[in-house]
Write a structure and sequence with these properties.
Elements: E1 3-5, E2 19-23, H1 29-42, H2 54-61, E3 68-74, E4 77-86, E5 95-102, H3 111-125, E6 130-137, H4 141-149, E7 153-164, E8 168-178
Amino acid sequence: MVSAVAPMADPQRPAAAAFVIREARADDWPQIWPIIHDVITEQQTFPYDPAMSEDDAKRGWLLAVPARVVVAAADDLVLGTANMYPNRPGPGSHVASGSLMTARQARGKGVGRALATDMISWAWRSGFAAIQFNAVVDTNTAAVRLYESLGFITLGTAPGAFRHPIRGPVGLRIMWLDLRHPAHATSRARPRPS
C-alpha cells in the first residue's frame, strides 16, 4: 500500500518534498541504516544498544511477514521508517507493536505522524485489537505528544528504566491504543469499517 502525504509547511525549515509511505525494499537499507544508527547513537529516544552493528540492526528491523516494514520516501530519498508486528507470539499476537524512526533532517515535518498513522491503519486492517508501544522514553516528548494526539494512552511508566545520557535515569512508558472501540482511536488515523 502506498499513501501520499502532502508537505508540511513550516517557515523555520526548508520545505520538504511531498512523500509517500510505501513498503520498504531491499535497496532502501543503505538509507534506513543511517537513520537507525543516528537515532540509537544519540541515546535519547530509543532503548537500543548504541553499539548495535549494522547486521544486527538489519536483522532486527527488516522483519519477515507477518511483520511489515515501511519507509516514508520523497522520490528516492528515505525520510523515515517503521516496522510493525504482533507484540508477542501466541496469546499476545492479537496486539500489534512497532517502532518508528525519522531522519534528523525530516523531523517535525509530518513524517513521524504519517508513519504512525500508517501503522494504525495497518493494525486495524490486519484485525489487531490494539497497538502497544512497550518502551517510549518519557523524555521523548515529541513522540509522546504525537502518540497521544492519535489516541494512545499511557498505561504506566517504569521509573528510571532508561539511562538517558544527559538527564540520567528516566522512565519508559507503555503506551496503548485500543482499536476495538472507535472512541479510543482518532478518526484520521483509523479507517471506518465498511
